[in-house]
Amino acid sequence: MSVAHVQSAVASVNDPEYPDVSIVDLGLVESVTVSDAGDAATVGLIPTFSGCPALDMIAADVERAVLALTDVTTCTVEWLPGPVWTNERLTDRARTTLADEFTVVLRRKDGGLRCPICGSDAVADQSLAGPTRCRSVAWCDSCRNPVEVMR
Ligand SMILES: [Zn+2]
């Protein structure tokens, strides 16, 4: 089994909270290695936010996808302590899908927010409490829609 096979299996795993976005596009996959004999795969992932309840599901999904490959008998999924995930790891495809389908906005480096619906900068943080600990809710003053902020 080659690394490329394992990588494509990993790329078939989508985030449980954003079903159309692959964990590869989310920038969660840091390393993929295969043993010399080709029967053992190790996948190193970095969490978007530690303590996210989806992490266990993601690890189980990765394991299942890799073990479905012929010749792979063991798959180890590791949550790596670093590098730290930032939203710069998202691919353009992930950004587009998150904005269009899930109205998720990404915080810019300067801390600003841009509405994924109307493109306005008039987005105000509403509260720290969000649907999950990974996200918070903000409010767009321009189109008057709630948007989710990915931390
Ligand atoms: Zn808006």
What can you tell me about this protein's structure?
By secondary structure, the protein is an alpha/beta fold. It folds into 2 domains: 3-79, GMP Synthetase, Chain A, domain 3 (2-Layer Sandwich); 103-150, no CATH class. 23% of the residues lie in helices and 25% in strands. It is built from 3 helices and 7 strands. The strands form 2 sheets. It has a 4-stranded mixed sheet. Strands 1-2-3 form a 3-stranded mixed sheet, with helices on one face. β6 (135-140) and β7 form a beta hairpin. The protein is elongated. Zinc ion is lined by residues 115, 117-118, 120, 140, 142-143, 145.
Give the helix/strand layout.
Layout: H1 3-11, E1 29-34, E2 40-45, H2 54-67, E3 74-79, H3 92-102, E4 104-106, E5 123-127, E6 135-140, E7 146-150
Parallel strand pairs: 2-3, 4-7
Antiparallel strand pairs: 1-2, 5-6, 6-7
Zinc ion is lined by residues 115, 117-118, 120, 140, 142-143, 145.
- Overall structural class, as computed from helix and strand content, comes to alpha/beta
Write down the CATH class of the largest domain.
Alpha Beta
Instruction: Find the count of extended strands (DSSP E, 2+ residues).
Output: 7
Order of helices and strands: HEEHEHEEEE
- Span of the ends, CA to CA: 36 Å
According to CATH, the homologous superfamily of the largest domain is: Fe-S cluster assembly (FSCA)
Q: What fraction, in percent, of the residue positions are helical? A: 10-25%
Low-pLDDT residue intervals, each spanning 5 or more residues: none
CATH topology of the largest domain: GMP Synthetase, Chain A, domain 3
Beta percentage is 15-25%
**What is the overall pLDDT average?**
88
Widest sheet, order of strands: 4-7-6-5
CATH architecture field of the largest domain: 2-Layer Sandwich
- What Rg is obtained from the alpha carbons, in whole angstroms? 17 Å
Bound molecules: zinc ion
